[in-house]
Design brief:
72% of the residues lie in helices and 0% in strands. The protein is mainly alpha-helical and 279 residues long. Helix 5 packs antiparallel against helix 6, helix 5 runs antiparallel to helix 10 and helix 6 packs antiparallel against helix 9. The radius of gyration is 25 Å and the shape is globular.
Amino acid sequence: MATTTAVPGARHAALPSATGRAGLAGAVRSEWTKIRSVRSTYWTLGALIVVGIGLGAAICAATASNFSQPGNHFLFDATARSQTAFVELGQLVLMVLGALVITAEYSTGMIRTSLTSQPRRGTVYLGKGIVFTAMALVVSLVTSFIAFFVGQALLHSTGHAATLSDPNVMRAVVGSALYVGVIGLMAFAFGAIIRHTAGTIAAMVGILFILPLIVDVLPASWNDDINKWLPSSAGEALLSTIGRPGSNLYSAWPQFAITAAYTVILLIVGAVMFRKRDA
């Protein structure tokens, strides 16, 4: 009968110890892989470029062809003319992408897989936010500058084209991109709270497009007090390089700060709900 003799001092073989733990860098790489591997990302970013540059160019070309030289054009804002399509419709496009970044995984059930591979929910949420913010800002800035240069080239024949060195023009071009990016980030936060694509988009459309229409029909005194606190008012303030007579809004950057503050609050609420609720 064979016996086994224990050798003093012998040590059982053990699995190798972990050399690290899944962290933010890994989460960012994972989310970057996800966002660039789905076709919806390219469709929405393509739509942003087409709307911001293509439609903006069409507006400027139509303006130039119907521009009356003898007229009084001291209130003509060439910068706003080239950026309006990008701001007004670009925000709609980017808010769809912002919503999809987080709600798409809930609709397919892949959020469970993501949280299984990375149980630290706060890290997953932050990783998604970082990747989307970086992508949104880069694409928005590129689109905004191209829309400006193309638009001003088309408006050159009017004699009223703007340059980046003109007063408030750089602010308008950069601010337009920042505004569109922040609106996309706001949609991302709403996506974490609502967890449904259609619901998130409906909420954003209501806040950005329906609510201003409701405020417009209120008595003038109410309109003046409420309008400056609407998130969408930042886009209007940032677009204008010459000011608007009778405007009750704050100046451009304070108006943008209000929208940014709303977004930060929503991101915090979204982070708390993302961590507390079941997937």
